[in-house]
Design goal:
The protein is of the alpha+beta class. The protein has 10 helices and 21 strands. The protein binds fe (ii) ion.
Amino acid sequence: MKKIAFILLGLALCLESLAGGVKSGPWVSEARDNRVTILWTSEVPGMAYVELSDGTKLWETFAGRRVFHRLHSVRIDGLKPGEVVRYRVCGQDIEDDSNARNPKFGVVYEGEWHSVRTFDPKAAECRFSVFNDIHMRVPQYEALAAQVDSASTDFLFLNGDIVSAGNYDLDTYTRFTLDPLGTLPAGLPVLFGRGNHEGRGNNVELMADVFPNEDPAPFYYTFRQGPVAFIVFDAGETGTNRSILYSGKDVYEDYLNEQIEWAKQAMQEKSFRKAPVKVCILHVPMIDHEDKTDFLLQRWLNVHMVPMLNKAGIDLMIGADLHEFMFCETGTMNNAFPIIVNDEAHRLDFNYSNGYITVRTYHPKGTLEFDYTFKP
Ligand SMILES: [Fe+2]
């Protein structure tokens, strides 16, 4: 009897270590042509590292010390464009660190091996999938994600409102934003465009920790994959009642002016300026609207930002937010590029190859519902 109990205990411990201490993830973010950041959460706080296929261990540290977190974030620098990184996430739980001189450590875990590729400006194509306005509808999100063919996709883009307004905690946020994507984000970088709902509530800094981005700010940045340069903006809140929603704490006009000043410089950078194709992606589409009051911010963006984007040679804008599909042809609202707004129920797939951009949208059942190809 004693023997059976020992076997069961051993099995339980074995299963616990197989469970790996990983609660959510890993997911890859902040991908560029020379770096990626690997993130995950563990069931309890602990030390953590990313192990590479050559045995190198990259510990999560702060100022020369290993730290005991639940959200783990390890950046891998010094990579080559298009390099495949094979990695697994590992760590050791901490059971009690009340005595700083003698912390009590727990389970050691080693996750599954995954591979991810850095971006490569010399790649011939650029292919990505966009999700937006999911608003915690998990079955639909899972269905859309399950259809993504990772072998023919470079990255995923979450274009805002994946969750709904609220006071977020780490586990709620990863459960609704990352877990429905399954293992896709372990092998495909996930880039993030903040939606208005992710700007509401308390703890808005959380998304910047989950999708870190140093350069130059968490939620507005440029990057490049293959022939396509991207500029991502964070347009804040759309409605006229936003000061009520934010208890008067919002300063979005200042924030947008800050982005305009930054964008003028960023779009002059060689890797952006010389890119054969330029795409602007953000949650709030910069569309003109007959309603002059209710959609104040969209019109503000149209007036203040579209001329700058026209001048920089943007070829396409991808927006979200409206919960309706919209295709605004070039020239219909002072735009020198088409604006495509994806609705809340579809995945938008982008492909640039052989000189043509193709945009398709798919229903959760897998049906193709919009199919548009044009030469930028
Ligand atoms: Fe939304």
